[in-house]
Each structure stands twice: as C-alpha cells, then as structure tokens.
Specification:
By secondary structure, the protein is mainly α. The chain has one domain. The protein has seven helices and no strands. α1 crosses α2, α2 packs across α5 and α5 packs across α6. The model has no long low-confidence stretch (mean pLDDT about 80).
C-alpha cells in the first residue's frame, strides 16, 4: 500500500520461529500451580482437572465477589491477603462451584437432549475437535475407522 509517492517500502519476511519464551513462562507457571494443588488434594486427578478447578472454577467464582473486588481495588496485595472476608468468600466459591457443577452434571446425565446440546456446543462453538487435533497425544492414536462418518 502506498502512503507516499515513490516506491513502497517492503517488509522483511519472517526468518525464524519465536523463541518460545512466553510459552516457557506459562508452562512454568502452570507447573507451579499443579505442584501446589498436588500437595493439597489426595485424590487422583489429571493435571487438567487441577488447573481447571483452580484457574477456572474457583477463580471464576471468586471473581464474581463484589466484596473482594472492592477490597482488591482499595488495598495492597498483602492487605488483601489478610482480609477477614477472604476465607469466607473462598468457602462460598467452593460451595457455589460444587452446587453449580452438581446441578449441571446431574441434568446432563439425566437428559439425552442436554448431552446432545453439549455435543453441539463442544463441536460447533468451543473448538473441541480442533483442540484434540492440536494436542500432542500421550499414547498412540486409535486406529481410524475405514468408513467415513455420516454427514450432519
């Protein structure tokens, strides 16, 4: 695209891949969370279960707390960590997550329609298939069926 008279400047092509620094930092951060959760729970869980529980489920519930949001906005990290409301809000988040997930799981187990709806959301809106294709397999992939899947 020309912005001035004369020859347009050319962009140099990419010559090498990224250094991976951001990915390595994220991996180290996730590994640290998994190690800390491993010291808390004695039940057998996958690393993904642990990360989702802490980073999505409990954190998500805690982010809903207007009390904690107000305290975070008005205090230092250290003051916030010593809030008398923090223990109560964490307990509320754990109970709220348990209630919500129990209700949704119970409904899905009892309803073919809801399971079909979950399948639709996962396949057509949440990127499930794409996520599976980009995930590195931990074990050899199962044999591929010879007959193609029926069209939807």
């Amino acid at each position: 695209m020309h912005l001035r008279d004369g020859e347009a400047p050319k962009l140099d092509p990419l010559t090498e891949t990224g250094g991976g620094r951001v990915q390595e930092k994220e991996k180290a951060w996730l590994h640290a969370i998994i190690e800390k959760v491993n010291t808390l729970f004695e039940v057998e869980l996958t690393d993904q279960d642990k990360l989702v529980y802490v980073n999505d489920v409990i954190m998500g519930k805690l982010l809903e707390s207007t009390t904690l949001a107000q305290q975070a906005a008005n205090n230092t990290s250290e003051q916030f960590a010593n809030s008398p409301d923090l223990k109560t809000e964490i307990l509320k988040a754990i109970m709220g997550a348990l209630d919500a997930h129990t209700l949704m799981s119970t409904e899905a187990l009892n309803s073919e329609t809801e399971r079909g709806g979950l399948k639709d959301i996962l396949l057509n809106h949440a990127g499930w298939w794409e996520g599976l294709r980009t995930k590195r397999p931990l074990c050899p992939p199962p044999p591929i069926a010879e007959a193609p899947l029926p069209a939807r």
